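Per your request, structure below.
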C-alpha cells in the first residue's frame, strides 16, 4: 500500500490541477492521495497569493470530494495544510468544522512576519544571533501549534534548516519539547521528502528526530509535499528506510480525521 497526503494543487501554490495530481498518483502507484492546499488565516485578514482564500473553501471542498467520488482506482482524501498563527486556532477550527475533512496538517511557516521557507536571501543577510532567535521562536511556535490540537499531522518538523542556516546554540531541548507536545496532542508526524530536494539535502525531520518521535510513540506518515504531479511519491523508498532505521514498522492514513495504521 502506498499513500501520499501532503500535496498542493492550483488551489494554493501547486502547479497542477487536482485531476493531474490524481493522474500523478496513478502513475506512481499511490492508492490513496491526500490534497492539502495551504490555508492561512491571520487576525488582520492579510492575504497570501499562495494560500486558498477563505471564501473559496466551499468550492475547494466540493471539487476534492467530487474528484474522490468520480475516481475509482485512487482514493482521494480531503485535507488542508493550515498555517499556525498565534491565537488563530479556535477561529480556524470553527471555520473548518462543517466540512468533511479527512486530515489536517498544521505547519509553522512564519515567525512574526518573517516567512521562514520563502527564500534564502534574508537568512544570508541575518546576523547569526538573529538566526538563533528565529530558530528558538520557531520551536516555541511549533510546540504551541501542536498544543492547539487543531491538526492531525505536524508539517515539516525542522523546516528552518531548509537553506542550511543552522543555529549556533544547541536548541535540541526546544525541539524535543515540541516533539513532546506533538505526542501529548496525539498527532502524527510526517517524513517530508521535499527536504531532500532543497539546499539542506535532508528530509524533515532529521534522522535523530525521527528516532525521538518513534521513542515517544508518535505515529508516522510519509509525505512528498508535492507541488507537481511527478512528485507525489518522490524519495518514498528512501523515506521508508529512514523510518525503518528509526524503529517504525507502520505508518498511518486517515479517514474523516480517524487514524488508520498500516504496515510500513
Ligand atoms: Zn509547508
Ligand atoms: Zn506543503
Amino acid at each position: 500500500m502506498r499513500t501520499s497526503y501532503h500535496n498542493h494543487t492550483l488551489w494554493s501554490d501547486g502547479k497542477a490541477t487536482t485531476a493531474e495530481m490524481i493522474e500523478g498518483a496513478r502513475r506512481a502507484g499511490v492508492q490513496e492521495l491526500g490534497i492539502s492546499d495551504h490555508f492561512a488565516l491571520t487576525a488582520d485578514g492579510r492575504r497570501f497569493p499562495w494560500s486558498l482564500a477563505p471564501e473559496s473553501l466551499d468550492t475547494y471542498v466540493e471539487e476534492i470530494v467530487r474528484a474522490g467520488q468520480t475516481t475509482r482506482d485512487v482514493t482521494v482524501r480531503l485535507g488542508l495544510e493550515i498555517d499556525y498563527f498565534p491565537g488563530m486556532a479556535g477561529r480556524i477550527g470553527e471555520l473548518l468544522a462543517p466540512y468533511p475533512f479527512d486530515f489536517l496538517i498544521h505547519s509553522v511557516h512564519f515567525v512574526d512576519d518573517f516567512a521562514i521557507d520563502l527564500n534564502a536571501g534574508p537568512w544570508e543577510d541575518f546576523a547569526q544571533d538573529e538566526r538563533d532567535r528565529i530558530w528558538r521562536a520557531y520551536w516555541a511556535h511549533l510546540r504551541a501549534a501542536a498544543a492547539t490540537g487543531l491538526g492531525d499531522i505536524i508539517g515539516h518538523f525542522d523546516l528552518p534548516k531548509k537553506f542550511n542556516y543552522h543555529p549556533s546554540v544547541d536548541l535540541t531541548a526546544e525541539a524535543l519539547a515540541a516533539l513532546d507536545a506533538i505526542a501529548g496532542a496525539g498527532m502524527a508526524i510526517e517524513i517530508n521528502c521535499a527536504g531532500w530536494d532543497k539546499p539542506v539535502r535532508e528530509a524533515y525531520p532529521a534522522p535523530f528526530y525521527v528516532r525521538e518521535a518513534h521513542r515517544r510513540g508518535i505515529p508516522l506518515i510519509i509525505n512528498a509535499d508535492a507541488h507537481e504531479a511527478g512528485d507525489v511519491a518522490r524519495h518514498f523508498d528512501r523515506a521508508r528506510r529512514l523510518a525503518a532505521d528509526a524503529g517504525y514498522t507502520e505508518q498511518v492514513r486517515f479517514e474523516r480525521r480517524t487514524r488508520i495504521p498500516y504496515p510500513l
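The pocket of zinc ion (ligand 2) is lined by residues 6, 8, 81, 225 (CB under 6 Å).

Regards,
D.
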